[in-house]
Amino acid sequence: MDKGSVFITGTSRGLGKALAERFLQAGLAVYGCSRQARTIDHQDYRHFAVDVSDEPSVVSMLKQIAALKVPVNLLINNAGLTQASLGILTRVESAKDILNTNLLGNFLVSRETLKLMQRQRYGRIVNFSSINVPLGSVGSALYNASKAGVDAMAKVLTRECGNADITINTLGLSLVANSGMLDSLNPKALAAKQEALLKPKALKVEEIMHAVNFFASPLARNISCQTVYFGGV
């Protein structure tokens, strides 16, 4: 991708921030959002303090982005909440937070961004999922359900885009280095995940960028509704 702009959710820290910085280094304009204040200082970066599950805030944010008159060629739905509790011990407040952020938030951001992409007849959306889904990892019932919902939604939204050159795909991440993911797992849980993977090494941001750029390429116009998992699950 060498033109237009990139919109990334969840850019205040971790993977979202790292991806935003890589695209800025590549010379692209980047829009980012998170519940927190901006943590990236760059002339080509515009930050929005937004909860992606709040519809009025999301609608306002995309109107402001549209007013800048720079095509949004790539949306990366990175914002998300994880889960580390057995289903029978998960409180309804936690369940709502996970579903509102991971599923409803993805829908709202995708819906409003797709309106811009439909006008320009071009766009790429990359969603992030996890190896927890195919592995059926214990303690991630609501998280897995939210990500399965995103996959199902992507198939329908792609069809609703008609003949426009718009694709929606998903990257299933394994263990990501320097993202806080490894730190959140105790040694036993980390070892269990690594044992379940054919490729257990932690992912570098550059590896994720490589996969994102593949889906974002104009030459990937006939690849949509696909989920590619890291780790060899």
Offer a quick outline of the entry.
The chain is of the alpha/beta class and 233 residues long. Helix content is 42%, strand content 18%. It has helices spanning 14-25, 55-67, 92-120, 132-135, 141-160, 187-195, 205-216; strands at residues 5-9, 29-34, 45-49, 72-77, 122-130, 165-173, 227-229.
Question: Secondary-structure blueprint of this entry?
Answer:
Elements: E1 5-9, H1 14-25, E2 29-34, E3 45-49, H2 55-67, E4 72-77, H3 92-120, E5 122-130, H4 132-135, H5 141-160, E6 165-173, H6 187-195, H7 205-216, E7 227-229
Parallel strand pairs: 1-2, 1-4, 2-3, 4-5, 5-6, 6-7
Helix pairs in contact: 2-3, 3-5
Radius of gyration: 17 Å
Which shape, going by the Cα principal axes?
globular
List low-confidence stretches. none
**What is the CA-CA span between the terminal residues?**
28 Å
The SSE string, one letter per element, is: EHEEHEHEHHEHHE
Q: How much helicity do the residues have?
A: 40-55%
The count of helical stretches stands at: 7
Would you tell me the structural class of the helices and strands? Answer: alpha/beta
The major beta sheet can be summarized as: 7 strands, parallel
Q: In what range is the share of β-strand residues?
A: 15-25%
Strand order of the largest sheet: 3-2-1-4-5-6-7
Can you count the beta strands? Answer: 7
Overall average pLDDT: 93
